[in-house]
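Q: Given only this backbone (972 positions), what sequence would you predict?
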């Protein structure tokens, strides 16, 4: 057999001998034809001959599956040159040629020996009858699957169409199969055997080690001039220094077309003729460049990875990677194009961390795209990342490069014998790594690339087809009809993803202030929730801790370690489950309120003294209205970093609640005490950043230099608001006189009404009516809102809905009994009417039900309690109809926080109010107080939601808390 094989080798291929014993053994095994065969041999080992020679010797036709048309073409041309009948059926074949081939295949004794097809063609319905016919007539001698690693999803070049070959195998019973690859680690080998349904195959696997290849890695960014460095490498590799003729040629691989052009230009400029080769060139130009390189007219081809597969050039003296290869397997294959003649050759990678980041991004993007397409993740998705990481390790390791490659492919450590930079000079490799590490730390700190990794995906070969698989432009499927549509979709997906990434990467996160070293928060550095600052979280933590303290009993130190760690857990729980800053804050408040609901009622004295002192220090509200069952909407918003008036802008602590502002006298009187307490606390053993911040609040509030002037200004504003002039009723006295005539007309001119109101709502009669119906103070507030919204308030649209709903839920959740938890039960009861002063009784008669009698509403917006405490109507008395004036008065009372000093808070509010009154006028029927109240409530609710949506917390503070609920109630 050996003699006849050798003779055939000589006759058909012109080789005297087999290239190796292995090659001979494989050929013999295939020729025997009793077993499937698996071949894993290094690049250039002569694998093709392993099926070509048996194909020539067999009677029938050998079907060869090959991934690329270009590769097929090379092989077919090569065989034709050897006068071996070979051809290919593919989508690019002219119809005439295809007919001829099919005619030959259909004949009783076909002349063809080798038929090359792509995996896509295997599945083509037009080819199926031909294949079945050949098989039925016993004319298929072998099935050869070249580049068989493409069948494995663990492989670096997975091609889904290769999976169809399993089906092909079942359709070709009795046809021996030969699978060939150069790059198959153990898991890939196993996968190949399974996918191709190889039955107990004979495996011929040789170590990947190629002793004639010298590997090294150069950190590109550390070079003063990388092109000069590359030029020197080229000259050395091609022995151009000696001035003699070049010894062979070389390949430089780049990832981008642009890089190909640049490198080729630079090398040529430096004196070595180099040409670029990439998919951006016309097909003719590409062929020409390849041809010139093959002939040695062009010494260096600077190409994307679309070049090389199937290019059979023996004297490639070097392969340089200007950019990182996408996996170690790919790198082995690409670099393996050097030294196919067995002579010493160089393989160099110019490594760059930035390049690594870009490729990493592309690979993950590609994985994401695939997952999106198939709708699920796969275990094998990891393979691309693992292989890429292996490539990075190859560059970054202080180890033998050959050993790294061998280990990757599951081989034993080879005897490198100085065939890599590490084995030659480990110190130099270490020095380079150390220098690179220092450099990367510096550059990381200095710069942040714009966009994802600061690169332009469109410039990459992967821009259209994933991460650098440009060679698959020449896939069989590459020219299909719906290719345009697919590409459009791909582009659209890419665009969407890019936009998503940019959106996610933008914004206030850049301003994220990192936590202090002693910050007790868990995941303190996390920026998962946009716009949620560490300070806000710490403040929430302090609220929780305080609530816990109240929950556990007032005797304990509110800042003890147990409550702190418990609060930390609680806070973290909320943090983890919240999607946005507002939801987080609302959830914290809910927790605080729940705890307070179930807290044991402390002795009032304690509350008044100790806890009240803490209250000042912590800027929270142990004994405040919060404990009375009212968490005002302003408090929900007060968790946000806020500015509480011009004087507070520079305040070191941003967390100052409206309550504090409303209690200037209390603060002033206790300022020194609190301040001294803070000093004592600071020196105490139980220290935490929360406490420190709490003290800082007290200090900042108490400091006359910092807050005195500003607070008084703000307080003045609030005090003015608290007076809450209701002179609007005067209008209704006037208005009533107009009422009859309007009722007669039964038609109200809303605009006219608006005009009348705008006169009333303008504090200064000189004020231009066009300058909005706002007081100067309100205008100031709005400008502040605007400023704040520019910096802080960026809400992702779909979050808005969710937040609104969540806040709505929180507001509508039946809250605790409005009985003050820190008061004895009887104390908390509303006083009997008989015990009330006449004024209070009078007030109560015309007010909406008291909060205490409406548990469900207890924690809603804290409107004027004077309004809410009224309405204890005699049970059996029929409801009296109200006059329009009374109705307006009721509504105005409900609007009280939004309507001060004869002015409305905003235009929207004014309009709603005007609309409501015009509705009353238009309707012309009398109604009971209850009806008016219900309508007023509905109006308020509507207004509340609109204000909630569009105004800042500061506005809320100003508008909604002009009267301290507690203060008024205490007065009562
Ligand atoms: N017995 C032989 N004697 C001399 N040259 C040979 C022999 N067998 C193959 N060759 C030559 O070796 C070169 C490499 O062969 P081939 O292309 O089949 O390698 P390969 O293992 O398929 O490489 P790759 O994995 O890169 O495709 C070719 O030029 C081929 O003509």
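A: Predicted residues:
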């Amino acid at each position: 057999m050996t003699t006849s094989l050798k003779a055939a080798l000589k006759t058909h291929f012109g080789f005297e001998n087999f290239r190796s014993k292995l090659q001979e053994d494989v050929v013999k095994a295939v020729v025997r034809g009793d077993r499937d065969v698996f071949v894993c041999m290094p690049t250039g080992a002569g694998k093709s001959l392993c099926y070509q020679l048996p194909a020539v010797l067999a009677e029938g036709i050998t079907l060869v599956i090959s991934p690329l048309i270009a590769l097929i073409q090379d092989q077919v041309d090569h065989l034709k040159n050897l006068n071996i009948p070979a051809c290919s059926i593919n989508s690019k074949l002219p119809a005439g040629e295809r007919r001829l081939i099919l005619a030959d295949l259909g004949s009783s004794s076909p002349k063809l020996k080798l038929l090359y097809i792509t995996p896509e063609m295997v599945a083509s319905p037009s080819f199926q009858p031909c294949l079945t016919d050949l098989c039925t007539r016993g004319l298929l001698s072998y099935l050869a699957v070249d580049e068989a690693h493409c069948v494995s999803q663990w492989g670096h070049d997975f091609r889904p169409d290769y999976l169809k070959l399993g089906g092909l195998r079942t359709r070709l019973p009795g046809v021996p199969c030969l699978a060939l690859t150069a790059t198959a680690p153990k898991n890939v080998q196993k996968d190949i055997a399974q996918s191709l349904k190889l039955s107990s195959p004979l495996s011929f696997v040789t170590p990947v080690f190629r002793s004639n290849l010298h590997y090294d890695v150069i950190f590109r960014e550390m070079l003063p001039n990388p092109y000069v460095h590359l030029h020197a490498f080229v000259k050395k590799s091609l022995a151009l220094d000696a001035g003699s003729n070049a010894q062979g040629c070389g390949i430089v691989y780049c990832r981008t077309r642009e890089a190909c052009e640049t490198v080729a230009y630079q090398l040529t400029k430096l004196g070595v003729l180099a040409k670029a080769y990439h998919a951006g060139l016309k097909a003719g130009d590409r062929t020409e460049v390849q041809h010139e390189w093959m002939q040695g007219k062009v010494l260096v081809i600077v190409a994307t990875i679309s070049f090389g597969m199937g290019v059979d050039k023996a004297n490639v003296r070097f392969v340089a990677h200007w950019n990182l290869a996408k996996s170690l397997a790919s790198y082995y294959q690409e670099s393996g194009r050097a030294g196919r003649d067995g002579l010493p050759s160089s393989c160099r990678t110019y490594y760059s961390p930035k390049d690594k980041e870009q490729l990493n991004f592309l690979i993950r993007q590609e994985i994401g795209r695939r997952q999106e397409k198939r709708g699920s993740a796969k275990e094998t998705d990891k393979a691309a990342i693992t292989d890429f990481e292996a490539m990075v390790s190859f560059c970054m390791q202080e180890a033998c490069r050959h050993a790294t490659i061998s280990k990757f492919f599951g081989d034993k450590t080879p005897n490198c014998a100085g065939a890599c930079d590490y084995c030659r000079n480990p110190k130099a490799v270490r020095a380079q790594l150390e220098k690179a590490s220092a450099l990367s730390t510096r550059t990381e700190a200095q710069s942040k690339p714009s966009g994802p990794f600061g690169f332009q995906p469109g410039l990459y070969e992967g821009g259209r087809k994933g991460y650098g698989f440009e060679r698959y432009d020449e896939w069989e499927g590459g020219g299909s009809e719906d290719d345009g549509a697919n590409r459009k979709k791909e582009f659209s997906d890419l665009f969407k993803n890019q936009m998503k990434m940019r959106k996610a990467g933008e914004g206030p996160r850049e301003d994220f202030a990192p936590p202090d070293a002693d910050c007790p928060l868990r995941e303190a550095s996390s920026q998962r929730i946009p716009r949620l600052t560490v300070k806000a979280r710490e403040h929430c933590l302090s609220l929780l801790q305080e609530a816990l303290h109240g929950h556990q009993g007032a005797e304990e130190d509110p800042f003890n370690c147990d409550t702190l760690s418990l609060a930390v857990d609680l806070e973290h729980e909320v943090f983890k489950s919240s999607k946005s800053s507002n939801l987080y804050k609302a959830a914290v408040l809910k927790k605080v309120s729940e705890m307070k609901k179930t807290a044991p009622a402390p002795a009032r004295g304690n509350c008044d003294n100790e806890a009240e002192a803490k209250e000042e220090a912590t800027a929270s509200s142990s004994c405040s209205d919060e404990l009375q069952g009212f968490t005002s909407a302003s408090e929900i918003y007060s968790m946000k970093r806020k500015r509480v008036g011009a004087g507070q802008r520079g305040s070191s602590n941003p967390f100052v609640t409206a309550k504090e502002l409303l209690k200037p006298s209390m603060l002033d009187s206790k300022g020194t005490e609190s301040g001294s307490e803070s000093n004592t606390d600071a020196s105490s053993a139980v220290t935490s950043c929360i406490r420190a911040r709490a003290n800082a609040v007290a200090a900042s509030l108490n400091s006359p230099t910092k807050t005195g002037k500003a607070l008084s200004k703000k307080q003045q504003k609030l005090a003015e608001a608290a007076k809450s002039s209701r002179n609007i009723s005067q209008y209704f006295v006037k208005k009533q006189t107009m009422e009859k005539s309007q009722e007669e007309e039964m038609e109200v001119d809303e605009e006219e009404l608006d005009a009348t109101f705008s006169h009333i709502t303008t504090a200064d009669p000189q004020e231009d009516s066009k300058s909005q119906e706002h007081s100067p103070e309100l205008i100031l507030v709005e400008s502040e809102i605007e400023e704040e919204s520019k910096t802080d308030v960026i809400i992702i649209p779909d979050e808005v809905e969710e937040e609104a709903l969540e806040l709505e839920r929180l507001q509508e959740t039946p809250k605790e009994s409005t009985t003050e938890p820190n008061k004895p039960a009887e104390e908390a009861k509303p006083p009997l009417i008989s015990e009330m002063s006449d004024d209070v009784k009078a007030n109560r008669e015309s007010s909406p039900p008291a909060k205490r009698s409406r548990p469900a509403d207890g924690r809603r917006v804290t409107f004027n309690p004077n309004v809410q405490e009224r309405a204890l109507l005699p049970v059996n008395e029929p409801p009296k109809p109200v006059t329009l004036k009374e109705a307006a008065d009721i509504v105005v009372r409900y609007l009280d926080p939004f309507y001060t000093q004869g002015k409305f808070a905003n235009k929207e509010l004014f309009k709603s109010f005007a609309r409501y009154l015009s509705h009353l006028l238009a309707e012309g029927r009398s109604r009971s107080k209850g009806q008016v109240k219900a309508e007023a409530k509905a109006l308020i609710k509507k207004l509340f939601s609109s204000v909630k949506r569009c105004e800042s917390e500061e506005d809320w503070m100003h508008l909604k808390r002009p009267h301290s609920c507690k203060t008024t109630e205490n007065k009562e």
